[in-house]
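Sanity check

After download, print the first record. It should look like this:
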Amino acid sequence: MPRTPSSPVLLAGLLATAGVAHAVVPKQFDATVPSSLPGTPRQWTYASGAVELALAAGVAHPRTRRVAALAAAAFFVGVFPANVKMAVDARRRSPAVRAVTIARLPLQLPLVLWARNVSRGAAG
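Expected structure tokens:
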């Protein structure tokens, strides 16, 4: 399978890496969980990591790729509030940290479009 920018292999790898990161370094993700959500930030961190791992597996498998890639696109939209919270919380941090958190915000759109393209390219 070619590894193009719309490659399902690369998308699955990104999702798997993010999912593992949620388990390995959960503290940094806990801070991005909006306080308005029920439960603890750690529960949300582990749950979102598990979802990313499930999405990675679904995108990697040709039979489930279409649905999993669409679900990944929805997931990328769903976690956008966490990225906004991260940017808001960085207001009093260094200019470099503020720049990174603000720069992440528009990057959600290419992720959504990438997942959508993977879904469209899946056999189905």
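If your output differs, re-run the checksum step. Summary of this record's structure: The radius of gyration is 15 Å.
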